[in-house]
Amino acid sequence: MTNWPDEVDPTGHDLRLLTDELRAGHRVVRNARGEWVLLGYAEVEATATDAERFSSAVSAHLQVPNGLDGEEHAEARRVLDRYLTAEAVAPFETRFREIARDLVASLPTETDAVRDLGAVFAVRAQSAWLGWPASLEPRLLDWMQANHAATRSGERARMAQVADDFDDLIRGVLEPRRLNPTDDLTSRLMADGWKERPFTDEELVSILRNWTGGDLGSIALCVGVLAAHLSLDPALQARLRSGVSDAELDAVIDEILRLDDPFVTNRRKATCPVTVAGVEIGEGEVVKLNWTSANRDESVFGVDIFDPVGHAARNLVYGTGPHVCPGRALATMELRIAVQELLAATSAVFPGERDPEREVHPVGGYRRVPIALAR
Ligand code: HEM
């Protein structure tokens, strides 16, 4: 067991290198906040699937469904997962494709795949899905930047402020719909409920925060990772441009993200004393599942081996266990469309003149991915 030097590393180095190095000697480390960070695949998988001994009720704030356990969590998932099945999101494919096509067509030759492509695409696709007005786009983009900056800073007060700002934004979406319900997903959710009653305002804000707050940043970061990888792999670009099935492309995307998973950690709290990889963890102590490290565990995946089909079943990019990502079908469709439209509109995607910049822990992936587009 070792101590993690410092999680909030302002230098922006690729923290995968640190976790790769640490994982070689330790399956579990302790960070500067006293939290246990699980680095090995087996430990992360076992903990994510053991909801009895590892509770998700870690935050003091209401988090539906993330912060719930047991039957309450299962009921929330039964109600909310209906909005996110492959069938439920399929009707949005045409609109998402138009959004991606128009956006890629408007990009200059030298562009930033995170800010100009990933973030804008994420906001427009998400707004189309939820029925939110286009006028919210600047506010959502500003919020994404502020959210990442606050997360990077590690300052709790700043993170709380950013969370409050987002809640205000969501309340501004809910209020007009109360008087005049619209024919969109947000209004449908407002008419829905659980525990044999309608959702409360607080619950609606929490659900929409988890759908949007998590999704926007993750999609933007994933697009950055995908663009960075493709720009350095012309042979893969050529193969994908020559026409592959959606299933093949989805597997390639998941494998690129497995190697550089920008959705780094989720937390749990031990409900009893428990031993993980020989390390004793006390009741009430916080445990972090480091998906990025687990996804690179050489004992499962080998070292830097790119095998979309062979690795698919064990890929943890969308998590596992009862809290496994319900948004996977939506995210997969969005990412597939973004990659397809980027490749269709270009003859080649090159690395840009400036080097990419890594994000800072606890955010993974890149902050900036300059790319050059040959049309
Ligand atoms: C862009 C790629 C995405 C990645 C990499 C990702 C990853 C993950 C992971 C690893 C978890 C597991 C969390 C845990 O075990 O504590 C999770 C949960 C969750 N994700 Fe995603 N996600 C993505 C997109 C989305 C989208 C598009 C939505 C919805 C619109 C979404 C909504 C959620 C929710 C609500 C949970 C909590 C589920 C629960 O606690 O039961 N995610 N996600």
Describe the structure.
Belongs to the cytochrome P450 family. InterPro entries: Cyt_P450 (IPR001128), Cyt_P450_B (IPR002397), Cyt_P450_sf (IPR036396). GO terms for molecular function: heme binding; iron ion binding; monooxygenase activity; oxidoreductase activity, acting on paired donors, with incorporation or reduction of molecular oxygen. It is a single chain. With 375 residues, this protein is an alpha+beta fold. Helix 1 (15-25) links the parallel strand 1 and strand 2 (28-30). It has helices at 15-25, 41-48, 70-80, 86-89, 93-106, 113-130, 137-153, 156-179, 185-190, 201-231, 234-241, 246-259, 291-294, 298-301, 308-311, 328-344, and strands spanning 2-3, 28-30, 36-38, 54-55, 110-112, 193-194, 197-198, 265-270, 274-276, 279-281, 286-290, 348-351, 357-358, 366-368, 370-374. The strands form five sheets. The protein has a six-stranded mixed beta sheet with strand order 1-2-3-11-8-4. It has a three-stranded antiparallel beta sheet with strand order 5-15-12. It has one domain (2-374): Cytochrome p450. The chain contains 16 helices and 15 strands. Helix content is 52%, strand content 13%. The model has no long low-confidence stretch (mean pLDDT 93). The longest helix has 31 residues, at 201-231. Bound molecules: protoporphyrin IX containing FE. Residues 48, 65-66, 77, 210-211, 214-215, 218-219, 222, 263, 266, 291, 317-319, 323, 325-327, 330-331 line the site of protoporphyrin IX containing FE. Protoporphyrin IX containing FE binds next to helix 10 and helix 16.
